[in-house]
Write a sequence for this structure.
């Protein structure tokens, strides 16, 4: 039996990603913000969408610089990722406060977090006004990963240890990725064979 | 030391959601497809974006019916979710093949998977052409959840048991959500106090 729970909060809906978005402001000061509203939205060109409200410092930075990065924090940086989502770059230097290092992308006009294991470098492809949020679609120019999370040149999720975000009881929480349930594009073939289609 | 890995496959980037998208075709036949390209993109109005390539049966269905649902499979339905992502609704009736039940939304012109614990009912809000994919932004009209995953009217992620999708070694896999790492909007306050801002 299903029950209606309305639409607040929508963060109940599924495990959201934890994206730390890096930008430069008009003076070249690096900033980061943490968000969960985003996801891949195209393969050719490879694009990722993030949603940012107009009030955010990051909004102005992306509008001006036409670029951003996404740094994926590993679970040992949960505290830093959370702090980056709590405070505004208008008031504080989040890199200084956390001790994290801004690294300049060599491909797009934005900084990333050098300590985080997985980086997407994005050129602004399109902006879409939705309502309280603007969606910035970024074309992914490259992905950079720490060598120590690679095995045979492939990043392993067990080594990257990304966080996921979800509502839990009375608050929101960061979760780790759990164990493997099944192989994709494979386990479903049993049904295909049985049903003959 | 970071290493460039290019942009293929982009599914390396972070744990993607597993969305089973429900639509009706022009004859009213219910269809479902599984995708990982999507995410929340606005809070007011509450919106979720999914990216679908033009070749897909779902593309035509959403363009015609202006509505879709997202059914979140729990981990015990990994096989069904995978099958739904492998085959096309042009050829087969995926509900019949899996034995899953199409339930008609009372709010939007689309069916959802009755056996899955978490449902988003979406009215098409905007379509955004990107490249090989079209992004459909849906306004979430309601979320419906199985009563047995609720505690004090809140869905618990430990009971919903959603899947996440990621690349792993030579293939892609479904993972379960792991244990809680930290409380959000809380653990970062230690840095805020220490840094005074």
């Amino acid at each position: 039996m299903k029950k209606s729970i309305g639409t607040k909060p929508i963060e109940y809906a599924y495990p959201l990603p934890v994206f730390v978005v890096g930008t430069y402001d008009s003076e070249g000061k690096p900033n980061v913000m943490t968000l969960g509203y985003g996801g891949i939205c195209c393969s050719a060109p490879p694009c990722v969408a993030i949603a940012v409200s107009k009030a955010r410092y990051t909004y102005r930075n992306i509008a001006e610089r036409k670029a951003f990065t996404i740094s994926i924090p590993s679970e040992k940086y949960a505290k830093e990722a959370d702090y980056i989502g709590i405070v505004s770059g208008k008031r504080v230097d989040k890199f200084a406060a956390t001790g994290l290092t801004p690294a300049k992308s060599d491909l797009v006009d934005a900084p990333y977090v050098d300590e985080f294991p997985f980086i997407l470098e994005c050129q602004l492809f399109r902006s879409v006004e939705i309502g309280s949020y603007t969606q910035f679609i970024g074309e992914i120019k490259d992905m950079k990963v720490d060598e120590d999370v690679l095995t045979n040149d492939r990043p392993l999720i067990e080594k990257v240890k990304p966080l996921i975000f979800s509502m839990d009881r009375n608050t929101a929480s960061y979760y780790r990725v759990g164990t493997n349930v099944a192989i994709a594009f494979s386990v479903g073939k049993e049904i295909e064979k049985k049903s003959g289609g």
User: Anything to note?
Assistant: Chain B touches chain A through 114 residues (CB under 8 Å). The two ends of chain B are 31 Å apart (CA to CA). Chain B is about 15% helix and 50% strand.
